[in-house]
Structures are given as structure tokens and as C-alpha cells.
Specification:
With about 210 residues, the protein is mainly alpha-helical. Helices cover about 55% and strands about 0% of the residues.
């Protein structure tokens, strides 16, 4: 049954990816449009404020989906929604293509070895007792994700940002995950597990 569920979810993700990237964007045009993004994400997509995500080198289809979700109101953020609202729909693929073409910088963490060990355990093995699925199943052993299924790269992401997103999924404040996958996982995680896996993810080398 679990295998069938994973196949169904993967099929859903692939269909989303195919429709989202019907016309790939132009990174050159995306750079021209990126000035509103620079204040938070920096010109190359590597934010320096831990609360704001690195978007450099993320998969193009995933970035496009997030922009479309902000514009359609499927994802909510006090800063992002008004920024995306003034963009034309046809501009979104170009922005996604530009930031996808950038190179992510290595992540940083000051977490203890014990905390990182717990994060590694959750990332690769989950928690069978509480039903927490291993992150590796969707995000891969190196955190690079699965572009075909619109599962994002998480490698080298700021720990503060990752923790915030896990908490949002748990609390239902973010709900644009396919088939409620992240909400189901985060809803079973403890605060300690969330913090640990967020810091571990920050140590994964960027692509």
C-alpha cells in the first residue's frame, strides 16, 4: 500500500511539473526583472538573512510553482504576496529560470554534534515510532530533491528558514504541498526533531 501511495504522489508531482514548465523561462529576461527580489534574496539568490530562503540553484519548476502559488493565494507571506501580485503571469517563468541558473552557497550551522546526529537520523531514517517519514525519500540522499516530481532541493538551506517552514506545515499555515505530504510529516514531528533536521539540512553541500 505504501508503495502505491508513493507512486501516486510521484505521478501527481510529474504532471504538475510538466504543466508548470510548458514554456521554460529566459534567465536573461529573468535577471532584468529581478530587482524587486534583490533586497531579500540578493542578486544571486543567496540570501544573507537566515529567515529568508536561498533560492539560488533551486529547480526551475519548483521556483515557478512557488511564484504561481503566491500570485494565486495558495501560499501566503506578508512580503512575497504583494511583490508577486504586481508581476505579470508571463514574467514568472523568467524569474524562476534566472534564479535556478545561479549557484547556491554552502550552508552554515552552529548546532552541536549531538543535534546534527539527531537531524541526520531523522533525515535518513525518520521516526518509525511516531510515523515520521524519512526526508531522504523525497529530497534524496544529498538533499537535491526530485525535479520531476517538484520536490525541492533543500541542501544548504538556512536552518532558520527550514524550521519555520516545517512549523508552518505543521500548523497549517502553509498548505501548497502535493497530497498534504509535508503537512502529514511535519504534523508528527517534535520541535526537537524539526530543529535538528533543519540544522542538518544546512550542512548538506549545495549543488
Amino acid at each position: 500500500m505504501k508503495k502505491l501511495v508513493l507512486i501516486a504522489v510521484a505521478t501527481l508531482g510529474m504532471s504538475m511539473s510538466a504543466s508548470t514548465l510548458a514554456e521554460p523561462g529566459d534567465p536573461v529576461r529573468g535577471k532584468e526583472l529581478s530587482s524587486p527580489c534583490v533586497a531579500c534574496h540578493q542578486a544571486d539568490g543567496n540570501s544573507v538573512v537566515p529567515a529568508w530562503p536561498k533560492i539560488a540553484g533551486k529547480d526551475e519548476a519548483y521556483l515557478l510553482k512557488q511564484l504561481q502559488d503566491y500570485k494565486a493565494g495558495r501560499r501566503s507571506h506578508a512580503l512575497m504576496n504583494p511583490q508577486v501580485a504586481v508581476l505579470e503571469e508571463e514574467d514568472l517563468p523568467h524569474l524562476a529560470a534566472y534564479f535556478a541558473s545561479q549557484t547556491a552557497t554552502p550552508g552554515r550551522t552552529s548546532a552541536s554534534a549531538e543535534k546534527l546526529a539527531l537531524g541526520r537520523q531523522i533525515y535518513f531514517g525518520g521516526n518509525a515510532a511516531s510515523g515520521v517519514a524519512a526526508c531522504v525519500a523525497c529530497h534524496g540522499p544529498t538533499g537535491k530533491g526530485n525535479p520531476a516530481a517538484v520536490f525541492p532541493s533543500v541542501a544548504a538551506q538556512h536552518g532558520v528558514y527550514t524550521l519555520d517552514q516545517l512549523q508552518q506545515f505543521r500548523d497549517g499555515l502553509r498548505a501548497n504541498d502535493p497530497a498534504r505530504m509535508m503537512r502529514n510529516v511535519a504534523g508528527r514531528m517534535t520541535d526537537e526533531e524539526m530543529s535538528a533536521v533543519a540544522e542538518f539540512i544546512a550542512t548538506l553541500p549545495p549543488r
